[in-house]
Amino acid sequence: MSAPRNSPSSSRSPYKNAPTRSVSVDGADFVYRELGPEEGVPLILLIHLAENLDNWDPRVVDGLAARRRVITFDNRGVGRSDGTTPDTIEATAHDAVRFIRALGCHRVDLLGLSMGGFIAQVVAAEEPRLVRKVILAGTGPAGGHGIDRVPALTVRATVKGTLTRKDPKLSLFFTETAGGRPAGRAFLRRLKERTDHRDKDISLPSFRAQLKAINGWGRQASSNLSGIRQPVLAANGESDRMVPSQNTLDLAARLPQSELVPLYPDAGHGGILQYHDGFVTTALEFLES
């Protein structure tokens, strides 16, 4: 693994202007963006299904980067990262560890959203010396209720979105209510704030590999969470139709050192995006406590 290219220092610019860099991980270039203070424990963001660097909410990233060094990256074979996308959560987690170490990081915090939360659980369990604290949002344990239905739900929403010319994240991440609909549209507008040097959309083979990985995670035997000894903050909307909200309650009940954010009202899978200001405040307090 080689050293990161184009300077290792963090960016003081907002996420929409953060430069895209790359680092070699076992011969494959992984792309990433970094911003916030240079000192302190880095916060690694683990993205959800089918998405790339441009799909992180800039309000969440900028809010966290006001006080933390924040790093986002594309998984193997996704966006502009090289290689073949793994078809298991475990292999994807191992890639994340290799990426973190390629950056020269020896101690990190993790924020995993949806599929990223599956990955974060594996990394935290297998690498206790690497991971200090974990934030799990809109996610659940292996074998969790309804997780094996996420691939079919996603495919149906994607097809419907193509036919209706509406982004599937509107229906998958937000409630169909007077509060949820405008929150979803506002989120999609924020994702378009970056106009230069945007990332590359996920390919169909990589999308299929991730769907297979999620299906496998959902069909596993119920995971033993007692091995995750790090402090964990769990958050979600009260009406998550992708990874049902009861999974967040399950995580909080079973993790040895957990703190549950009260489920966001009138919010779904994208609860932390809909309530981004409150989430950032809570996350920073948790990370700094």
Automatic annotation (TrEMBL):
GO terms for molecular function: hydrolase activity. Keywords: Hydrolase. Gene3D superfamilies: alpha/beta hydrolase (3.40.50.1820). Residues 1-14 have a biased composition (Low complexity). The keyword Transmembrane does not apply. The keyword S-adenosyl-L-methionine does not apply. PANTHER family: AB HYDROLASE-1 DOMAIN-CONTAINING PROTEIN, HYDROLASE, ALPHA/BETA FOLD FAMILY PROTEIN. This is Alpha/beta hydrolase. It comes from Streptomyces hawaiiensis.
